[in-house]
TrEMBL record:
UniProt source species: Bacillus salitolerans
The keyword Zinc belongs to this UniProt entry's keyword annotation: no
Protein name: Alpha/beta fold hydrolase
Keyword Mitochondrion: no
Domain AB hydrolase-1: 32-265
Molecular function in Gene Ontology: hydrolase activity
PANTHER family: ALPHA/BETA-HYDROLASES SUPERFAMILY PROTEIN, LIPASE-RELATED
Swiss-Prot/TrEMBL keywords: Hydrolase
Length: 276
């Protein structure tokens, strides 16, 4: 089964460079397209184990959300969930794709839900992997602090002090899976210092997650997959989302953390294909 892979595409939309990757199986062009959206402080790299599994049968589009990965880190872009969702919809319009299955991990889950709110007719199904939920807007004190001249430098110092190894240990249950390739893949995007100014702006622009009322208005068929050992977005958030999303199903995996696309790619693929 031959897969045609096209990578490192960049286009400019809404005044920012958007990096995306396309994995296209020639024999299945009439099927819906999988659109993969990563989480906070991540990139398309987080889907490296899941993409080949889905691309055996479907076209897959993976996007680097600005300011992460290889996408732009402009100081003029609005880094709100609503605007990021609109940006990806703009990409889909550019590519002529209007029949999709959305996959969103962590913060990417909220972007996916915002996309459904804006263009429900584009989305056949949504898969939420340890999705963010019910987070409020950034506190006023933090927003005001983000305007200080040294704030971006503080963010850089704080993230460097924690280190990529510490962060990975916090998001995966089995620490033995953390190797040099994984550490480099999650660390490399932060070699660009411009990202820290953009992160400061993201703190200001973040409008908070969709409310229960917004979620209850979504009728898209939804699959929620969670790790019971998730320390970042605990299972009770998934259970609450399952209650609010009226057309949803919740699946959990024991001894699994937050980074589901890395930890359970084969299981996720099987659950997704069965669900759709």
């Amino acid at each position: 089964m031959t897969i045609m892979t096209e990578t490192h595409f960049t286009t400019t939309l809404k005044g920012i460079d958007l990096h995306y990757e396309v994995y296209h199986h020639r024999a299945n062009q009439q099927k819906p397209t999988f659109v993969l959206i990563h989480g906070f402080l991540s990139s398309t790299f987080s889907y490296r184990r899941l993409i080949p599994l889905l691309a055996k049968e479907y076209r897959v589009v993976a996007v680097d959300l600005p300011p992460f990965g290889k996408s732009g880190k402009s100081n003029n872009f609005i880094y709100s969930n609503k605007n990021l969702a609109s940006l990806i919809i703009g990409l889909l319009d550019l590519l002529g794709i209007k029949d999709i299955i959305l996959v969103g991990h962590s913060m990417g889950g909220q972007i996916a839900l915002n996309m459904i709110k804006q263009k429900p007719e584009y989305v056949r199904n949504v898969i939420l992997l340890c999705s963010s939920g019910y987070l409020k807007k950034s506190k006023r004190s933090l927003v005001l602090s983000s305007y200080l001249p040294f704030f971006a430098s503080y963010l850089k110092y704080y993230l460097a002090k924690q280190g990529v190894l510490h962060n990975l240990r916090n998001v995966v249950f089995d620490h033995t899976m953390i190797d040099e390739e994984m550490m480099l893949g999650y660390e490399q995007p932060f070699y660009n210092n411009q990202i820290f100014n953009a992160l400061a702006k993201m703190i200001r622009h973040r409008e908070g997650d969709l409310s229960s009322k917004d979620l209850q208005e979504i009728d898209t068929k939804s699959l929620l997959i969670w790790g019971t050992e998730d320390k970042v977005v605990p299972l009770h958030i998934g259970e609450r989302l399952h209650e609010d999303l009226r057309n949803s199903k919740l699946i959990t995996y024991e001894k699994t953390g937050h980074l589901l696309p890395e930890e359970k790619p084969f299981h996720i693929k099987e659950q997704i294909l069965e669900f759709i």
